[in-house]
Design a protein that fits this description.
By secondary structure, the chain is α/β, with parallel strands linked by helices. The strands form 4 sheets. Strands 1, 2, 3, 4, 5, 6 and 15 form a 7-stranded mixed β-sheet that branches. A hairpin with a 2-residue loop joins β11 and β12. The chain is globular, with a radius of gyration of 22 Å.
């Protein structure tokens, strides 16, 4: 499917509120815009403080998608990492595991092909509901909208204070390339995907690496990559050049990191300590953008936003969520191929309230974009 099959975006009347403003120009924001345009929503605006795909641009240059891209001719999304029907990162990029920079280019191509209206360099400072409208206070002035989709992403704010002495470490998200790391031995705190990926690349550079994690994600017996290491990562860990240089310490937590003359001392909760000459690397995750709009959402017992079955806030009408923070019961939508299933859910809800025909969105059901149930991404099945 190409852009010619989508509804054209009409010129809006200046001064009128937008129908929909999407905050975030990443995979969630760009992906959420496409079905809205298809449903006939004529005034959609995506805003971002940086460029489209900027979070992917900042990945370490060696980092790759753990989910493979592969173009197919079957019904459904052409590609596991696609955010829009009829597109394929594998086909356009000619890569099975895209880098962050390549994927950012794919997102910009999608935005151009589907003529998504985008304004970059817009920093949202607050979000307020006034009557039937939302007002986004930004550094470029107020922007009004009937509906807001919060798709600002979860990977812009590295978690830098996970334990005492965190300031002596460097977060993995702040490293541009792994060959910048000096020394022969490296200690990584955090053993999920980003920590294991760092260990693999450092081992390939000839370094000895120790990974410390409070759990053992490399041993979790689950088919859901939301809670266990991916096959792509486990396969790379088994390679001889990596296996002989990486030590995995699971079931231990870090109590504190101290600076010493000879390097850094990492004290573990169980009383052991580890020494390293070079700054430990923290792969401790991100705090996410939800903190900026937390007041507009009730929260589940696990801290995630409480949503209606249409991914709308339960306490703030007209505010929807798209991206990896979406949770329903035990279903975790933290990967692109998972949270993209919710794009049409939100688009249909908004189109209906704007009294537009959302019949075109029914094609998303046939193509695997489920509108009414959550059966495909539970822990009991393989997605």
């Amino acid at each position: 499917m190409d852009a010619a099959n989508f509804c054209s975006v009409t010129r809006r009347v200046e001064g009128k509120p937008h129908d929909v403003v999407i905050v975030g120009g990443g995979a969630a924001g760009i992906g959420a815009a496409v079905p809205l345009l298809h449903a006939g929503v004529e005034d959609v605006l995506v805003i971002d403080r940086h460029a489209v795909g900027a979070s992917f641009d900042r990945w370490p240059q060696e980092m790759r998608f753990i989910t493979p891209s592969f173009p197919t001719n079957s019904i459904g999304m052409l590609d596991l990492n696609a955010v829009a029907i009829g597109t394929s990162p594998a086909f356009s990029l000619q890569r099975e595991h895209p880098s962050g920079r390549h994927y950012a280019a794919y997102l910009r191509n999608v935005a151009e092909i589907f003529q998504i209206p985008i304004r970059t360099g817009i920093d949202v400072r607050s979000l307020r509901r006034h009557g039937d409208l939302w007002t986004l206070q930004t550094d470029a002035g107020p922007i009004e909208a009937k509906f807001v989709i919060w798709a600002a992403g979860e990977f812009q704010y590295p978690r830098l204070t996970s334990f005492p002495g965190s300031n002596h470490c460097v977060h993995s998200a702040l490293i541009a390339a792994w060959d910048q790391i000096k020394g022969d031995e490296v200690l990584i705190i955090g053993g999920y995907e980003s920590g294991l990926d760092a260990a693999i690349h450092l081992a390939r550079l000839g370094k000895r690496v120790t990974v410390v994690d409070r759990e053992k994600p490399w041993e979790v017996d689950s088919s859901d990559p939301s809670v266990t290491a991916s096959p792509y990562t486990l396969e790379r860990l088994r390679a001889a050049e990596v296996r002989e240089r990486v030590t995995l310490l699971g079931g231990v937590d870090v109590f504190e990191v101290c600076r010493k003359r000879s390097g850094y001392r990492v004290l573990l909760v169980d009383g052991r300590d580890l020494m390293t000459k070079w700054r430990p690397i923290m792969a401790t995750g991100f705090s996410g953008s939800m903190k900026l709009v937390a007041e507009h959402f009730d929260h589940r017992a696990d801290g995630y936003p409480l949503l209606t079955d249409r991914d709308e806030s339960t306490i703030a009408e007209g505010l929807f969520l798209a991206g990896p923070m979406v949770r329903h019961d035990t279903h975790i939508f933290c990967f692109i191929y998972k949270f993209r299933q919710r794009f049409a859910v939100v688009a249909k809800a908004i189109a209906e309230r704007l009294e537009l025909s959302a019949e075109q969105l029914e094609m998303y059901r046939m193509w695997g974009m489920y509108l009414d149930d959550l059966s495909c991404c539970g822990e009991e099945c393989v997605c």
